Amino acid sequence: VGNYRQWLMANEANDIAERAKIKTLENVIVKSKTKSPVQVLDEKYASGLFSGGDGYQFDLVNDPFAKSAIDIFTYLQGKVAGLQISGQGANTVLTWRQGNPALYLDEMNSDVQMVSSISVQDVAYIKVFRPPFMGGFNGGNGAIAIYTRRGNDVRNEPGKGLANNKVEGYTLIKEFYSPNYASFSQENEQRDVRSTLYWNPNIEMTSRKPIVLTFYNNDVTKAFRVIIQGMTRDGKLAYYEEVME
After folding, report:
1. What DSSP letter does each residue of 209-243 carry, written as one string?
2. Quick one: 210 exposed, middle or buried, by C-beta within 10 A (0-12, 13-18, 19+)?
3. Do 38 and 123 contact (CB within 8 A), yes or no?
4. Taking the chain, what is the end-to-end CA distance rounded to the nearest angstrom?
5. Shortest CA distance to 120 belongs to which of 69, 85, 155?
6. All domains in the chain, ordered by first residue
7. pLDDT tens string 100-134
8. How far apart are CA 200 and CA 110, in angstroms?
9. Rounded to two decimals, what is the model's pTM?
């Protein structure tokens, strides 16, 4: 029994010694920043001296207003301080600090004519570098880098590859025809066999304001069926039908 107690005491002493070696750390707070869509595009498209920096960045993948722009230069108008854009299409003139900024298409030297011919919907990312730009030639007056879409950024074309059919909508409204026998017309010489002699969808009448309706009869009718449908001022439906000779 004595040996057993000694064994328990020794075991407890070992446990206490092991626990003493364990240190409880203070609370650790892990912080992380999510990347913005523009940062994701920059990492995906820009490389070398074109990557990073503090230039103007434009995300055309997630910009719903980009589709309304005629071309890249129209899209950039008024978005970059100091960059002046005049003219249209291939005749566009770019001026920045009394010089012309360099143009790059997918990081290759380009020109106004080439860039103006690209559809805005085919562009994913635009990066405008302030003067001077050290990433290429003629960068003393700044540079504009345009990146065309690729991979998952390629624009979706709903229905592409699917069968399509044009469904006709409503037919155009037809006005009610009533001949005018008060004046001579070659058409009036034909036999008149109209089944509906008069139709008017909008007649407003009161007890103090009688309505006089006039119409021309056809060549075969001797009795008239009069049908009146309407609604009272308090919203009640009205219907009246009578045969008159």
Report:
1. B---------SS-SSEEEEEEEE-TTS-EEEEEEE
2. exposed
3. no
4. 133
5. 69
6. 37-153 (2.170.130.10), 170-245 (no CATH)
7. 999 999 999 999 999 999 999 999 999 999 988 88
8. 67
9. 0.52
Element (H, E) at 85: strand 83-86
Burial of residue 136 (number of CB atoms within 10 Å: 0-12, 13-18, 19+) = middle
Give the pLDDT score at 42.
Answer: 93
- The whole-number pLDDT of residue 93 equals 93
Cβ–Cβ < 8 Å for 71, 95: no
Q: Name the token pair of 146.
A: 């345009």
Read off the pLDDT of residues 187-215 as tens digits, 9 standing for 90 and up.
777 888 888 888 888 887 777 777 888 88
| Mean pLDDT across 17-26 | 74
Give dist(CA 76, CA 70) in Å, integer: 11
- At 16, is the pLDDT very low, low, confident or very high (cuts 50, 70, 90)? confident
**Strand extents, DSSP E, 89-204:** 93-96, 102-105, 108-110, 123-129, 143-148
Separation of alpha carbons 215 and 223, rounded Å: 14
229 vs 34: CA distance, rounded Å: 67
245 contact partners, CB below 8 Å, separation of at least 6: 222, 223, 224
Residue with tokens 């880098």: 145
Check: CB of residue 71 under 8 Å from CB of residue 144.
no
